[in-house]
Amino acid sequence: MRGNYASERKRMTHWRQWISRPQNVWLRKAIFQVHLWCGIGVGLYILVVSTTGSIVVYSNELYRAATPEPVTVVQTGPRLTNEQLKAAAARAYPGYPVINIGSGEKSDQAVNVFLDGKMGQKNRLFNPYTGEDLGSSVPLSILFVSKLLELHDDLLGGSTGRRINGIGAALLILLAITGIVVGAITIVFYVLILIGWIIASALS
After folding, report:
1. Could you give the CA distance from residue 86 to residue 82 in angstroms, rounded to a whole number?
2. Tell me: the pLDDT tens digits for 154-181?
3. Spatial contact of 111 and 104, defined as CB atoms under 8 Å apart
4. Dist. CA 98–CA 71, nearest whole Å
5. Phi-psi region of 190 (alpha: psi -120 to 50; beta: other; left: phi over 0)
6. What are phi and psi of 57, to 5 degrees?
């Protein structure tokens, strides 16, 4: 009998705590902590995605603004053949075979030479008359816009970044669910108070 009484009293104590101080119930505390930390992570994630998304809307305009004028060269002597340009590129970048050679729209424009090696692809501008390396064909402004797009799409992480995007979406769902649970507990608390007040008023 005494054991049953103690157990019943313990249940009543938990129930009274739920009614009088729901913020101290361990379940609500645990759910609130999950909700809090999910909110911090999702907040940072949404900040990055929304900011880059707002910029990406104007990607076409940004690309046009970032695209520089074609690099021109002085025409000195006969134009080099593709084989001669390949040889010049091989001397400048050993271990990077040429996979393609572009041609400028005009005869005084530098040509784009595409190379591929163990460290990745290189896009370089070459003087079609002297074989001189004139620098990267991808300016920093274009690279910056491209990285913004990558940051928005996959957080600069390729397939790993896309998985992180999936985790971010899952955290957003978890944030919504825990928020609903925390809110529901609070609503139940006030509904029970209201019912108690109505019953007490009716009995008085």
Report:
1. 6
2. 878 778 888 887 887 787 788 788 778 7
3. yes
4. 20
5. alpha
6. -55, -30
What does DSSP assign to residue 161?
A: H
Instruction: Give the span between the Cα atoms of 25 and 14, in whole angstroms.
Output: 8
Q: What is the DSSP letter of 80?
A: P
Rounded Cα gap, residues 24 and 4, in angstroms: 25
- Residue 42 CB-half CA count within 13 A: 16
For 93-111, what is each residue's pLDDT tens digit?
999 999 999 877 788 899 9
Residue with tokens 């019943």: 8
Residue 100 backbone dihedrals phi, psi, to 5 degrees: -165, 150
Report field, pTM of the whole predicted structure over 0.90? no
Distance of CA 17 to the CA centre of its chain: 43
- Treating both helix axes as pointing N-terminal to C-terminal, what angle do 158-203 and 2-20 enclose, rounded to 10 degrees? 100
Query: Residue holding tokens 């705590």?
Result: 17
Span 77-87, mean pLDDT?
91
* Interior angle at CA 63, CA 62 and CA 67, nearest 5: 120
**What's residue 87's pLDDT?**
93
